[in-house]
Amino acid sequence: MRFGLVGTGYWARVTHATAISSTPGATLGAVWGRNQQAAKELASEHGATAFTGEGAIDDFLHSVDAVAFSVPPYVQAPIATRAAQAGKHLLLEKPLALSLADADAVAQAVEAAGIASLVFFTLRFSGEIRAWLTDENARGGWAGQGWSGGHGEWLGAALTPENPFSTPWRHEHGGLWDLGPHVLSLLWASLGPITRVNATGGAADLTHLVLTHESGATSTATVTLSAPPAAAAMSLHVWGEAGRSIMPTAPVDPVECLRTATTELLAMAESGQVRQPCDVRLGRDIVRVLAEAQAQLLPGATHQSPPALMPGGGGPVALVGTGVRGVTGGPGCSASCIHTP
Fold first, then answer.
1. Kindly report the CA angle at 78 between 74 and 83, in degrees rounded to 5?
2. Fewer C-beta within 10 Å: the chain N or C terminus?
3. CA dist 55 to 2, 6, 9, 50, Å?
4. What is the per-residue pLDDT across 254-279, written as a single tens digit (0 to 9) for each?
5. Whole-angstrom Cα distance, residue 307 to residue 304?
6. So where are the chain's domains?
7. Domain 127-250+284-297: CATH architecture, name and number where available
8. What is the pTM of this model?
9. Which residues of the chain have pLDDT under 70?
10. Collapsed DSSP state (helix, strand, coil) of residue 127
């Protein structure tokens, strides 16, 4: 399958281009970027064709069978919608979008086209963590009888000027939108779909979430991109009648994880079985939770009980603000530096 890559930044170079070009059955045939020189250089490294600018998007899409993304979410969403409408399979980044309306547009285009899609929640494609989730679900999981609750946190501290993840969209939107999708996707897999969220903010972009799951279990999440370097870490556990189960936290290889995602997208496209636990629908439902949490954090937001969320469709549409409580900088990635563009 011939892939096109949208993006030319650090994560696109070291992870996406490397993983796709080394996955059996996949070739990197085209690169689209906002920076013409960067697009030419990355394309040249992989024997691909470079495309630049809004006017070249259609030609870029016509030249490939599938599209992988490594750009900020506000760039990803409109191009992903166009790619889906053109019948291209999608390997997406998290978060899918920065508003529920944009996430819905991508999901609806994917559904209408009947194409394969995956959202690259990095840790969900780790073999060790998948094995843990399999065991965790066998011992209790979504039934809510083995596990009563859980907690996940990702404390990041690497958005210093010299860090490759010190990007404008992270400074503006903070840990809720950058690290939140990772933690929420893992709690979703551990305890079931999230149906309600209560959000409370702390210093800078520090965000605490209290989550209610469809299973009846509850969980909490803490994320920030502004932690002191000495505190940077990621952890997640579930607990209940079955005891306490702690997710492995050894650093994972993002290239290997993306190879797994690419291989699974190829299999989905070939078989026609286009639904998968990490497909665009989960990406859209995670955005629904994030958008509701963000709405509660906006200045002047009321603190009444939040509306129930409806995974998979429906539910309230929450407006997303243009910043994270005035955050101007300081956030960063986790100790294992698993990140996106």
1. 135
2. N
3. 21, 14, 20, 13
4. 999 999 999 999 999 999 999 999 99
5. 9
6. 2-123+254-279, 127-250+284-297
7. 2-Layer Sandwich (3.30)
8. 0.89
9. 141-145, 158, 302-307, 310-341
10. helix
